From TrEMBL:
InterPro entries: FN3_sf, Ig-like_fold, Short_hematopoietin_rcpt_2_CS, TypeI_recpt_CBD. It comes from the Eukaryota. It is a single-pass type I membrane protein. Residues 10-98 form the Type I cytokine receptor cytokine-binding domain. SUPFAM superfamilies: Fibronectin type III. It is found in: Membrane. The keyword Membrane applies. This is CSF2R factor.
Length: 146
């Protein structure tokens, strides 16, 4: 454990608008200013790893995140590896979190029949970058009587 105390924490990724993803982390508690972190990722276990192309930096210039574009996640799996360059030790991350901020439902249609006093409301589900099964979505509808 040559990187004692420099291990990152709070690693999480958020997907915005289907194809942009930011992954961020906190630097280790005892990480010096010259500690540097590098993020590598791959979508399949046997694939080669790719390094982050667009790091987010803190005031010391340490990498504290990565911006991704054109993200497509197949089968919900992305593998991440972060290593630190102070003593070159790898810190593997397995407890990563990927959250997706969804766009609102599209083409909301309301159809009311006055005779029965009933209304039907339907919409298109949002596009997502990694959830393929549309039955995974649940919407709450709030009706206000103006």
């Amino acid at each position: 454990a040559g990187m004692n105390g420099t291990t990152i924490s709070n690693f999480a990724c958020v997907i915005f608008n289907v194809s942009f993803m930011n992954c961020t982390w906190d630097v280790g508690r005892t990480a010096t200013e010259d500690t540097q972190y590098f993020l590598y990722w791959r979508s399949f276990k046997n694939e080669n790893v790719t390094e982050c192309q667009n790091y987010i930096k803190d005031t010391c210039g340490r990498h504290i995140g990565c911006r991704f574009q054109n993200v497509t996640i197949k089968d919900n799996s992305l593998y991440f590896l972060v290593n630190g360059s102070r003593s070159g030790q790898s810190i593997h991350i397995s407890d990563y979190i990927i959250a997706e901020k969804l766009t609102p439902p599209l083409n909301v249609t309301v159809n009311c029949t006055e005779a029965s006093g009933r209304c039907s409301i339907w919409w298109q589900p949002p596009r997502t970058s990694h959830v393929k099964n549309m039955s995974c979505f649940k919407y709450e509808i709030v009706i206000e009587n103006k």
